[in-house]
Amino acid sequence: MKFAGEGVRDNGGVYTEVFSSIMEELQSHTDPPTLPYFIRTPNARSGTGSYQDAWMPSPRETSHAALEAFRFIGQIIGMAIRGKVQLNFNVTPCFWKQLIGGSAAAPLGLADLESTDANVANLVSKMREQAKIMRAAAADASSSSSSSGTALAGIEPDEFGSMFGVENFTCVLSDGVTVAELVPGGASKPVTLDNFEEWIILMIDARVHECAIQIAALRSGLASLIPLHLLCFFTPAEAERLVCGVSDFPVELLQSVTIYEGAMHEDLEYVRWFWETLRDFTSAQKAQFLRFTFARERMPARPAELGIKFKMQEPNARTAKDPDQHFPSTHTVSRRTNAMRPAGRARRSDLCVVAKRMRAHGSRNCAHMFCVWSAV
Q1: 76: which of 36, 265, 267, 292 lies 20 to 30 Å off by Cα?
Q2: C-alpha triplet 86, 307, 279: angle, nearest 5°
Q3: Domains in the chain and their CATH numbers?
């Protein structure tokens, strides 16, 4: 495995780094995104509801080239499963339900839609509440022989949908651009008090299955490496753990598979500083640390699945002479880290400035190097 234009002195770590780089590009925060195949959830764009940090396939990407790209992504996932590489693939639960298919996946409904688009779920609730009010008013009017009918505040039953910005039997998909007709000729069929429940049922079905074509293509790629019939034995959460491992991990998990080489041992002051620092890290900083040492951002659910020990070596002779002028080094293929023996607890801000300057000069790993001793 080689990176174009970059010198590499490793093998297994570079292979794993490829997966991390692919996931990073698929879940790009740039505008426009590096790749168009995955988008942020509507909840992320509106800042409401759950899974605001999750991604989902873009329903807009339906071209042959795009579907081939999804098939390739499925093959990447299959390679990661076979190679026991945990991916930083932060997608919605609805994605995992559709990926595994079969009886293990519960039917998709309003709760699944709410997990990605809380505003639409709130719209459904408001429409049903308003319908109850209007029908109750109609019943009262009927009993009192009033001529107001089901109209309320000047709104006629045939204009019910317009109260909520729902003019016809269409809906906007999660990309915020694509409009889908829910029935043939839906653009000319108005949403009324009598048929709004039909619109809700069709809208929910369209939205929760809006990425069915893309996921089918991805499953096709996955099937070229993994027998799909085995996925039916997994729940969606188990499938996610299989592919992604755990996003946050207790430091004790890493300590349980750590080997100290040479004169290194866990009672050394700077080793204790190291573990104390790691415990203070946020989930994102832990992910950066794993990227630096393991060339991946997720840990397996169980230590036995790690496959190899995490090894800490003594500082080499070059850095030992003037430790505060150097960062730790790592060998990702063997999960071996050359520790630092700092002269004292340096300020986090000072090391952060150094790391940013190094990153500006094009070092691939310098931002992750900052993680290891940022609080030391």
Answers
A1: 292
A2: 65
A3: 12-107+210-244 (3.90.1750.10), 114-208 (no CATH), 251-373 (3.30.2410.10)
